[in-house]
Specification:
Number of strands of chain A: 24
Oligomer: heterodimer
Helix content of chain B: 25-40%
Number of helices of chain B: 9
Order of helices and strands of chain B: HHHHEHHEEEEEEHHEEEEH
Radius of gyration of chain A: 24 Å
Shape of chain B: globular
Largest sheet of chain A: 7 strands, mixed
Largest interface: A-B, 13 and 14 residues
Structural class of chain A: alpha/beta
Distance between the termini of chain B: 44 Å
Number of helices of chain A: 14
Chain lengths: 470, 312
């Protein structure tokens, strides 16, 4: 016996559960299948709990610098267990929030491992046996997991992935972080603030290599100043786990091998899509190295099977997955005869990225180098935090905001920021960019004083040689 | 009157004179001389975004002429009221664009007209045979489908006529995209068969049917009617014997096709009856000399009279 739906969403991360809600809003009979926790990695084991951890680290950092603000705080210490407990509490609260949203939208939740069987059928193997669901459309939103190093699997004791790093039972004394993408650099920042001695090894020639080169350079300097050791252009050759820790052989830029002993290692060298063993191969769903090929709306090559989020080409970000979920839901509704929805394929150049290290990094669109590579005649402007009154009052005068424009048309091609709260500032540019702003509208916008957002204005003015406060 | 009919996201017409476009789209349109009134928006709620203007950009008329989109009214002298009863119909955007572009063409392009008579018997016979052979596939070729192919092949053979006059430079196109005039309810529109010289006639036929249907329903996308390297206009079905068409800028030639009719015709020194049509090419004399235009007409005539060349 099978239960019939219009749409089944496989996976309930930020892509899947949002897709399910949008489907339900559009009047489609919707089910969602989840093997572990509603909300997926993002809010149980990713974005959200790490933000809780980093908030603790930030408060600790501020307490240690209380004197800078004319305050006194003595006997400051961190209770790792309590910090982790708070983080888990935040994740739990949001997990319950998703449960509530599913109920409110009358979405059927099936807990268990789902496998596509063809012909719109999906088998769910749960604790109490298996059941078969069927639907006209199935959205694959099974997400991704951490990539292992070929020579050293994460054991959860000495060698950690993000997942272990989020629920430590002991505080690392000497930590090696492999990979300086968003995940690596956030944990490096957290443990550094918490008092560990941190070394970051990055294979590319700079940290946060997807960001603008100026941002990478600034961040590297800031992290070193905080006491981190940063090795770029370097690779880890081997990890040997012993009783007292991990011995790492690291090949540096100049080919020299150095050996180091670390209490713990965090591996953050990318992700692998969860596309094996869910029946995709048998149905002939086209994929390359596990990444499912889709059109701008999430259609795979097999009619009735859709894919969104981390199982599809990047960037692998929660908000990209959510947006794809909405687009796919609307495209499905359209296929089922809804004439009132007009889904639009996403423009990937308008997807912002945020990294919550200290100082924070945020960006959208093309870096200056990428813009030049693409053949644009570039106009770029930079404005430093030191020129902003609010930043100085906050005691956060480090960082800058850089904007990149097409000199010919005035199109905002990209924006890149490093400094306090920039993850909350970037959205100003993202709205403008999505609306296809030019420099003229940004210049004509009134920014409130005193705020950090004034720097958004100044950076644009700077690109055209008109900055007021430098 | 709707511009493109009842498409899901009406761009301009439904909102009166207000053009909903992004700042970037407006600026690029101004730079390139694209008339936003003629651009269909693909953004949310039909908003015109960058990509719409860029795809329209290929068909952009000379910047000087298009920089003043409001000039449509100024194209006509004031019409005095002689007291004759009339009904005033506000011009739709398509009509405005037609008025502006054709005025611009006649005023700025020195036209030269070359007419030739072409025997159709062989082509009609071939068409009959092809249609019989393709009946199972549901394909029915029209004479016009074959003429599209013939014009495209002729342009490839005589590349001097497959050009645009662009002020400081001559653009020589490396493929022949044929704009085919279709009478739509909102006015004349010219959907394009891209790279027609290399397409099979059956494919041209299928594409043309789809484009003509879309044109009549007002559902053509901008990229389907903006561009083209030369045009073809056929009024043969109305019995028009011969006419001179106005060039569709920035193209440099248009072929006007008259009716195929049985006429007394001299074959091998003897008077016989043959099916003949008169075709007239209009050429932009700034870019194309008379002799080059004549070569194109000759090539076209030869391809139509020896139509097996259209199948290769």
């Amino acid at each position: 016996m099978s239960q019939q739906y219009d749409v089944i969403v496989l996976g309930s991360g930020p892509g899947g559960y949002v897709a399910a809600i949008r489907c339900a809003q559009l009047g489609l009979k919707t089910a969602i299948v989840e093997r572990e926790n509603l909300g997926g990695i993002c809010l149980n084991w990713g974005c959200i709990p790490t933000k809780a951890l980093l908030r603790s680290a930030e408060v600790l950092h501020q307490m240690k610098h209380a004197a800078d603000y004319g305050l006194a705080a003595d006997n400051i210490r961190a209770d790792l267990d309590a910090v982790v407990k708070r983080s888990r509490g935040v994740a739990k609260q949001l997990n319950q929030g998703v449960t509530h949203l599913m109920k409110k939208n009358k979405i059927a939740v099936h807990m268990g491992v789902g496998t596509l069987k063809g012909g719109g059928k999906l088998e769910v193997a749960g604790d109490k046996g298996s059941e078969t669901l069927s639907a006209r459309h199935i959205i694959v939103a099974t997400g991704a997991r951490a990539r292992d190093l070929p020579f050293a699997k994460a054991d959860g004791k000495r060698i950690w992935t993000y997942r272990h790093a989020m629920t430590p039972t002991e505080m690392p004394g000497k930590l090696l972080v492999i990979g300086s993408g968003a995940i690596g650099i956030e944990f490096a920042s957290f443990y550094n603030d918490m008092g560990a001695e941190v070394t970051v090894v990055e294979m590319m020639d700079r940290v946060v290599p997807v960001e603008d080169a100026d941002v990478s350079a600034f961040l590297e300097k800031a992290l070193k100043k905080q006491g981190m050791t940063i090795m770029t252009g370097a690779g880890v050759e081997s990890l040997d786990v012993g009783a007292g820790g991990v011995k790492a052989r690291i090949k540096s830029k100049d080919g020299k091998i150095t050996e180091g002993n670390y209490s713990h290692v965090i591996v953050a060298v990318g992700i692998v899509p969860n596309t094996e063993n869910i029946g995709l191969e048998a149905l002939g769903v086209a994929a390359e190295r596990g990444i499912i090929a889709i059109d701008g709306y999430g259609r795979t090559n097999v009619p009735g099977i859709w894919a969104i989020g981390d199982v599809t080409p990047g960037p692998w970000l929660a908000h990209k997955a959510s947006h794809e979920g909405v687009t796919a839901a609307e495209a499905i509704a359209q296929e089922l005869g809804n004439r009132d929805v007009h889904p639009h394929a996403m423009d990937k150049r308008n997807i912002p990225g945020c990294t919550y290290c200290h100082p924070q990094v945020a960006s959208v669109g093309l870096t200056e180098a990428k813009a030049r590579e693409a053949g644009y005649e570039v106009k770029a402007g930079t404005f430093p935090f030191i020129g902003n009154g609010k930043a100085i009052a906050l005691g956060e005068a480090e960082g800058f905001i850089k904007t990149v424009f097409d000199a010919k048309t005035g199109e905002l091609l990209g924006a890149h920021m490093v400094g306090a709260e920039v993850t909350e500032l970037i959205q100003g540019y993202v709205v403008g960019k999505t609306l296809e702003t030019t420099e003229a509208e940004l210049m004509a916008t009134v920014f409130p004083h005193p705020t950090l957002s004034e720097m958004l204005h100044e950076s644009v003015l700077a690109a055209y040689g008109r900055a007021l406060h430098i | 009157m709707a511009v493109r009919g009842a498409a899901p996201a009406p761009a301009v017409a439904a909102k009166g004179d207000r053009i909903v476009a992004s700042p970037l789209a407006k600026r690029i349109a101004a730079d390139r001389g694209v008339d936003l009134a003629a651009v269909k928006g693909s953004g949310p709620n039909g908003r015109i975004v960058k990509v719409d203007v860029e795809s329209a950009g290929t068909a952009a008329p000379a910047p000087a002429a298009a920089a003043k989109p409001a000039a449509a009214a100024a194209l006509a002298a004031p019409v005095p009221d002689f007291g004759i009863p009339f009904e005033a119909e506000k011009l739709g955007n398509v009509r405005k664009v037609i008025a502006r572009r054709l005025t611009e063409a006649k005023q700025t392009i020195p036209h030269i007209y070359l007419t030739v008579d072409v025997r159709l018997d062989a082509l009609l016979k071939l068409r009959g045979e092809l249609n019989k052979a393709l009946e199972a596939d549901g394909i029915k070729l029209s004479v016009n489908d074959l003429l599209i192919k013939a014009l495209a092949k002729a342009l490839v053979r005589v590349p001097k006529c497959n050009v645009s006059f662009a002020g400081e430079e001559l653009r020589k196109y490396s493929r022949a995209d044929i704009s085919v005039a279709v009478a739509a309810p909102s006015g004349l529109i010219t959907p394009i068969i891209v790279d027609a010289a290399t397409k099979a006639v059956a494919q041209i036929s299928t594409e043309m049917k789809a484009l003509a249907d879309k044109a009549r329903e007002g559902k053509l996308q901008p990229h389907e009617y903006q561009g083209g390297t030369a045009s073809l206009s056929n009024l043969g079905m109305f019995g028009i014997k011969q006419f001179d068409a106005v060039i569709n800028p920035p193209q440099a030639m248009i072929l006007a096709v008259g009716a195929g009719e049985q006429r007394p015709h001299v074959v091998d020194g003897a008077l016989a009856v043959a099916t003949v049509m008169s075709v007239t090419g209009s050429f932009d004399h700034r870019a194309i000399d008379g002799a080059d235009g004549a070569q194109l007409m000759q090539a076209f005539k030869s391809l139509v009279e020896n139509p097996l060349g259209l199948l290769a």
